[in-house]
Amino acid sequence: MTDLDTEFHAKLRGLVGHPTGGSGKPSIAPDPVNQPMIRHWAYALDDMNPVYLDPEFAEASRFGGIVSPPVMLQTWTMPSPKLEGIRERGGAPMEITNNPTAFLDEAGYSSTVATNSEFEIERYPRLGDVISSTSVFESVSEEKKTALGVGFFLTWLITYTDQHGEVLGRQRFRVLRFKPENS
């Protein structure tokens, strides 16, 4: 293994425990949890659970009122997309000012595919909750050979909290960063 390989692998391992990008500050939802967004989600996914849609039913339920589908956690904290310049950003819907994985692109691991997402729910978001999220790299695999090419699985842990700092849930999101097979 060369010094460059050693430096590359140290940088890769060094991602673990650090923010996935930006300033490391929490992402704060642009809007509080609200009924119109819940309704759009429920109809789009054909999830007509009455605790999401029926105030009387929800009031009499264990939740005591309307709640958001728990896997909407990610949706609440997504920033509005910036479409201007999206082609120049390779399709990214937002400006990326601090990309801690840019060194992977430089080393030829220029392609990304999402592989899975897992949620752990502590409690359902309630109407009016203002949700924040923080995201840190949780793990990086050894180099793997896949049908898409050789690469690394990167997993980050996103923690969602309400306006009081109460944890609502966690999401583990995993991607494969790889060198395309035909490159």
TrEMBL record:
InterPro entries: FAS1-like_DH_region, HotDog_dom_sf. Gene3D superfamilies: Hotdog Thioesterase. Pfam families: FAS1_DH_region. Residues 31-168 form the FAS1-like dehydratase domain. This is FAS1-like dehydratase domain-containing protein. SUPFAM superfamilies: Thioesterase/thiol ester dehydrase-isomerase.
